[in-house]
Specification:
Helix content of chain A: over 70%
Mean pLDDT of chain A: 84
Order of helices and strands of chain A: HHHHHHHH
Shape of chain A: globular
Number of helices of chain A: 8
Radius of gyration of chain A: 18 Å
Largest sheet of chain B: 2 strands, antiparallel
Order of helices and strands of chain B: HHEEHHHHHHHHHHHHHHHH
Shape of chain B: globular
Low-confidence stretches of chain B: none
Strand content of chain B: under 5%
Helix content of chain B: over 70%
Number of strands of chain A: 0
Largest sheet of chain A: none
Largest interface: A-B, 42 and 49 residues
Oligomer: heterodimer
Strand order of the largest sheet of chain B: 1-2
Mean pLDDT of chain B: 94
Low-confidence stretches of chain A: none
Distance between the termini of chain B: 27 Å
């Protein structure tokens, strides 16, 4: 069991790396690559969890994650790009400052986790806590904050959307690390996110950059 | 199976069904008839005793909301037909109508479904179905506002999934009534669930500091959509938050909720005096009303009745305020209140509805929002929250004064130079007045003992 936990931790750690990849990549195409790789890792995590716990729900969920989020979302977003999509870059993005902010937020997140969330996990009675994987919660928590950081600090709409999808991936990871939700709920969440991505793709038809307009101030 | 189950399914089926009117030329007529039938069904559902029906739940709070959702929806459908008359025959308008129907379905689903997970999904679906309603005119501001709305609300709501996970972990069920019947001992786990629900759904309700999308979306949306957002969407989200609160409450959670609610009131009191855009002003007023509704719901007792009064009155009065703003925007071509004057003589009907609706939404006596506020204040006094009452009253006073000053300036200033009246479309005028009359009639609902 210990070895299987280590495997899960390794997958989750790789997901965390993709979260930083999303922060530092200045080409917008790399954000879509992040979504695909991160979602693929989440699929592997969910599938192996399903195999270990003999849960058909989790195995089905794994396939749905890769299909709805990994493949369909990427296709929808790629269609919004011009021909020479490899050359589209984010404006006003300086790598060193992003790295510094990202690492500072990481440290802050870990402190909050250690001071606030970890004591909560320890306070759970043994019955409830038996299936809880504390390191997975920590990683998912960091991913949530990194995703929100992308949404809040970037002007490029694709990057902001990547942040949102990263938060959604983190919540699924957190659910798997705490207490998996019923399949109908997980499936509906996936479909909802897909619907939002479709709506987002319509809104992306205009400018790719979020603007500060005088009418929207005050 | 009870007849009420069929009624609930019918309530869902009609908006979904008429959304396919997109493919016909008579989509407006079909939409109006469908919305009217929806109101009739909602009133029939008032006869349903409070209990669960298959996957659904009818209770004291959500049946009131079902009525307000269907009625505001009906008025919005009628209003849109004239407000967007220049788009007549355009597929953009038929798509707009179809999305309005789906949007209404998602709200009704969120209200009646008896499952925490599916409630969340319903609320998230309201975002997906309503974001495109903002961009019917495809203006730059509207697209930007819709983008912010979608991104901020969805990101915020995602955090509420943690609340669902923790509730499921604690109760081993997501069925709302089942979890609530089990009762709970306050615990750290449930407190975290309660707070994450506040952050998540609070984003949708417009609780400070997660409210940033709200003035943008309300300010840029077409007026009938602003009315639907403000009058019914936000109260639906407040109801969902209330159900999560019921499953997670503790003294600490209640205190945190009250802190956020009071912060929202203080924030609105600070920004309201500087507002220049009429629709943004009413959007901030919605933040105030939502804070009061949430406060009433979580305080319970008489405050719950107060919250129901505010929900019902606010749905119609705020709709009337946004319809009035739409009438003004249509004829003056601006939302800037410093450029709007002479309303009394130029648009006598709209100036009347604007003043009436503003008095109501700001809680002026003797209207029902004032009664609702009194009930909430009374309950807070009884429970010993005197400091909260003081902060609340000061904020409400500042907000009311600011709104009424700005509205009075538009109505009563500059009438001397008015040479002719501006011609308002009859349907728009009727919908605006009807909405105000509905708001006024809520007092009889209260006196009749229906709340």
């Amino acid at each position: 069991m210990m070895e299987s936990n280590e495997f899960f931790y390794m997958i989750a750690a790789l997901m965390l790396f993709t979260a930083f990849w999303a922060q530092v990549g200045s080409y917008v195409i790399s954000k879509i690559q992040v979504i695909v790789v991160q979602t693929s890792l989440l699929t592997i995590y969910t599938f192996i969890s399903g195999i270990y716990s003999l849960s058909v729900d989790l195995i089905v969920l794994a396939f749905l994650i890769i299909f709805l989020r990994g493949i369909l979302t990427a296709i929808i977003l790629l269609r919004k790009f011009p021909e020479r999509r490899q050359l589209v870059r984010e404006k006003s993005t300086t790598m060193p400052s992003i790295l510094i902010i990202s690492v500072a937020v990481l440290v802050f997140t870990l402190i909050v986790y250690q001071l606030v969330i970890y004591p909560i996990i320890l306070s759970l009675n043994t019955g409830i806590a038996s299936g809880v994987k504390a390191p997975i919660i920590a990683i998912a928590f960091i991913m949530v904050i990194q995703g929100l950081l992308l949404v809040a600090t970037r002007k490029n709409k694709v990057t902001q959307l990547t942040g949102y999808i990263e938060v959604e991936n983190a919540m699924i990871l957190m659910s798997l690390g705490i207490f998996p939700l019923p399949l109908v709920v997980e499936l509906s969440v996936l479909l909802d996110v897909l619907a939002l991505v479709i709506v987002a793709s319509v809104l992306l038809s205009g400018s790719m950059t979020s603007e500060s307009l005088p009418e929207l101030i005050g | 199976m009870s007849i009420f189950v069929y009624l609930i399914y019918l309530l869902f089926f009609i908006p979904i069904g008429i959304s396919f009117a997109y493919f016909t030329n008579s989509f407006q007529a079909i939409s109006k008839v469908g919305a009217l039938i929806e109101v009739v069904i909602a009133f029939l559902l008032m006869l349903a005793p409070f209990r669960t029906y298959s996957y659904f739940d009818v209770n004291q709070v959500n049946r009131v909301l079902v009525i307000s959702v269907t009625m505001v929806y009906l008025m919005a459908v009628f209003y849109a037909s004239k407000y967007h008359s220049e788009l007549s025959g355009d597929t953009k308008l038929s798509l707009h109508y179809s999305l309005m129907h789906i949007f209404t379905f998602t709200m009704l689903f969120s209200l009646l479904i008896n499952d925490f997970g599916l409630m969340w999904i319903g609320i998230e679906a309201t975002t997906a179905s309503s974001a495109l309603l903002l961009i019917i005119e495809r203006e730059r501001n509207q697209i930007e506002a819709a983008w912010r709305y979608m991104l901020i609300v969805s990101s915020g709501l995602t955090l509420a999934i943690l609340s669902i996970i923790l509730i499921y972990m604690n109760y081993h069920t997501l069925t709302v009534t089942q979890a609530l019947n089990m009762g709970h001992t306050p615990s750290l786990l449930l407190s975290v669930a309660g707070v994450t629900a506040l952050v998540g759904f609070g984003t949708k309700i417009g609780i400070f500091p997660m409210h940033t999308w709200l003035p943008d979306a309300h300010g840029e949306a077409p007026s009938e959509i602003s009315a639907m957002f403000s009058g019914i969407l936000l109260p639906v989200a407040a109801y969902v938050l209330y159900r999560f609160y019921e499953a997670t409450y503790s003294v600490q959670v209640t205190q945190i909720y009250i802190i956020f609610i009071l912060a929202s009131l203080v924030f609105v009191a600070l920004v309201m005096p500087s507002q220049k855009n009429i629709k943004r002003m009413f959007a901030y007023s919605t933040m105030e009303n939502m804070a009061l509704i949430t406060l009433g719901l979580i305080t319970g007792g008489l405050a719950l009745v107060g919250a129901l009064l505010i929900i019902l009155t606010h749905a119609f009065a705020k709709s009337s305020a946004f319809f009035s703003s739409g009438n003004i925007l249509k004829l003056y071509g601006t939302k800037d209140m410093t450029k709007i004057d002479g309303l009394r003589d130029r648009m006598p009907l709209t100036s009347g509805t604007l003043i009436g609706s503003s008095l109501m939404v700001t809680g002026a006596p003797p209207f029902t929002i004032f009664v609702g506020e009194l009930l909430i204040i009374y309950q807070l006094f009884v429970t010993g929250n005197i400091a909260d009452v003081v902060i609340m009253v000061i904020c409400l006073f500042i907000i009311s004064l600011s709104v009424m000053y700005k509205v009075s300036s538009m109505v009563f200033n500059g009438n001397d130079s008015v040479k002719h009246r501006l011609k308002l479309d009859l349907t728009q005028g009727i919908v605006t007045v009807t909405s105000l009359l509905f708001a006024f009639s809520i007092i009889f609902v209260y006196l009749g003992g229906y709340l």
